[in-house]
């Protein structure tokens, strides 16, 4: 008897093709409304505004330590009325309010009855569900806890006192049993503070449960009591005796040191460790994995560790007796400690003064005061000491960011500091819960990711884990951008005022040593890309130290790799780090609330389980520092010399000398200024690069003996990135050379061959076939051995490689393998890469079935790899050769066009790079390679960009049609208006002052973003909207920030130009994720850098087959037709104003693309064309045609009677009526009433009637790619 379908377990790949062909799962949500529109229930639900966020943040602050519960109650009651149904008003908020009321009942003895009743009223509201909120286990835990605290007091109240309706345990037990709430969840809720309280609540539940025969509750509580009887297995294990040192006595001046007391103390580092381990011991019962606890401590105690290190640095100098100010003043940690102590004192005084001032304002203005504007409560959430350290660490971390040398943009600095303070506060709140989430790696024999059952299992496990986390986590509110900036400005202003450094130098006249106290930070303005921006700059002495000193104290653990496997992604904002929820989301939002809402809803509906699973796979790859390479890098670093892409400690390029004719020759002066500007730019880059390498070295040193992991998240297109920014495999050549897999595997014959090919690729010998690369490596074995054994003392062959540090790592690994007794059994842990060939064009060629393009990018079967970059470089050289005698730039560049000069431009051409972008790319390459003099770089790059783009010509013709189609679809969609807003769009535009404008609201209503669904069911929302910034007055300067909660109209031009590249990126991201999941199913270690996939050398053949299978399966799914179908479904009934379409000649282009416009468009074109001819005869027409006004009036009346104007105009009757309105006797028609008296802004067309058909596909069969050796190589 054959097995039933539901009994058979699919193999790893059984259902993948079926999964690709099943109907996509769209996430469709309402389009955001314009800023001045009245909110709808749906929009208010999805897009909460910033004032509401601020109110919730104030409520949280007021509940904290019972700071101002009456104020919290007023705001809570106000929100319940004004924002009923808002998703921000969640059950945990109601629970927090109940808990606050009960706590106030204990604190406010005179009014305790009122507070108890307020809490009971909140519970009754939840129980009745009138506000769409239902009680949770936490709600019942609070009520049972309140009953144990207040039932005796209630029994002592006078008989005639008003009754308090605090529910009895008997009633509560019945309610929670009916609602299916677990009794165990109640007694383990974080609101239960002590074992004694938990025991009392257990009895309070168990007694009525037995009396009422509640079997489920009885069984749960009996099991919980049995578990609770087990003792801590570590309780009777004695502690190890610590190593002690003699304690230095604290002797006051003039006192005699005691000699009889041999006092001992724990040395600093061990003492700090023991204090951390004490927390480990406390957490063992909840987190049994010691390494997991270590990771949690690492995350939790970032500020504590930084403070301890700085304190120890100061103590060490004092103990060594170093009193010389010259020796004490230059250490970075010492400076930071001095700033910290000063800022801490300043903040204590400033916060106290602010609280007094705000209290005076409240007393003066009374209840009408806008309380959410006060900062005092927020500045009390953390100690001044903590806020001081956070601010200093953040500013040091941001130095050199955003294109500002030795500084940072003011707005970015304030937002970063404000966010860091918010995250520290939220992390502290979550520490109280001490919750661990079990890891669920896929084990052999379990369901594969791509089977239907496997997918459902993923969803079920994630939902269960997410609910567990949410149920055990206290409520907290996010802070708005404005609030963060205001808080940070208060602190940063104080830091700029108190932080100083003492600098010394030789006076040129007196030759004496002089000293000066200077600000460590200062505020100024700079022009960045033509815009005047406020910036915070570091004193040059601080900047220099940042490039040379130990910078571990400026890197928080939230920027570091993890010591344990990252927490699985449980929700869009819950995963990766163990105890940091809000700082990292699964998607990196680009100030787009719309992106966040879509990813949140997709996660809630279980549509992106494979995205979560793929990120978990990427994050679970274990890494270690390559110690052999690290030792070489350390020697180079300490030498201070420029070597193998490591910048020198002292910039060695001399500053350009002023020419003799500088004053008299304008051209010479201009050339000199260009060279000086380039010199300072290069010097600044050298400093930034030095700081970057310093970060990498310190992090590598920190993890030198650890296995670590890199948690990942995605950008809005689905591309995955490691969250740690400094040391990861997605970084530069040095970062990659410093890392290798923690697990090693035997090479085998094929692995040894791939290791040799990998070395040739890294060196730059990657155009030959595979056999040729193996031969090349074997011919260079002497150089390889010399490089591996004498990296700095030998010939330095490895330093000439394209990627020198990865080349050195591979030389060492290959040398170790060849010197081992059996190279085939050598355990190799070095990642070996498989890279796509211009991956964007590979996807275009597959989408369009382009045979020519497929051959150029190795989709087709070839004997040798094709190299499109070299092909274009050679074409450009031919063009230069022809013009070298007539053009100075051709003569300057001929013979110097390497493939790397044109590579980026060729690569980005398929992504729609403009001439300006191409010129900037080429200019950078010319400058980096010193191909032309500095002053000629701009002109030469402009000339060369034209030649490169011309040489590309028809090379990518197969991709052009698809790009044009994608661009046109985006232009139409982003100019469309949701059906519910069409009537508003037709009205006159009235500004904020009430003045009517001559135009309609059409442009104001164009809020539709380009949204599509990737093959991984990820909703992708383009964030490009018109810039609308909000001005915030701070003590330092007026700061302009964008408010993501106030969306502006879309930037249609940017949306259209960005859609083709973003769509292709979403495909390569989907390809990578599918490959990652398949590799996990096959037990293959996997890492990726976008279109570069890494694994062990012995597994390259298996991974290569998977890469090809997933690519073919992806493109066999008719991607473009699916995208077309999604547009027709997602934007059904969306309207495009006729005026918008006609004004940009879109109709003519649509006709050329195969669109048959609605009849109304053709009729209006005909009328408009004829009327334009006769525009000069208006007066004669009016005299000769007395029936025009009557016709206009009749037509207008019929249009006003129509229920649906657009449907009427596009119907046969409407079209005829419009034509009748223009039927004029004689030989002329009326221009005055071109559209029959109706504004073109009031005529709308269904956008789905204009979306062009998918471009015709070519003859290339993508299945051929499975046989291509060089597709990824």
TrEMBL record:
SUPFAM superfamilies: DNA/RNA polymerases (SSF56672). Its EC number is 2.7.7.6. Pfam families: RNA_pol, RPOL_N. One of its GO terms (biological process) is mitochondrial transcription. GO terms for molecular function: DNA-directed RNA polymerase activity; mitochondrial promoter sequence-specific DNA binding. Gene3D superfamilies: 1.10.287.260, 1.10.287.280, 5' to 3' exonuclease, C-terminal subdomain (1.10.150.20), DNA-directed RNA polymerase, N-terminal domain (1.10.1320.10). The keyword Cytoplasm does not apply. The keyword Cytoplasm does not apply. Belongs to the phage and mitochondrial RNA polymerase family. This is DNA-directed RNA polymerase. It comes from Heliocybe sulcata.
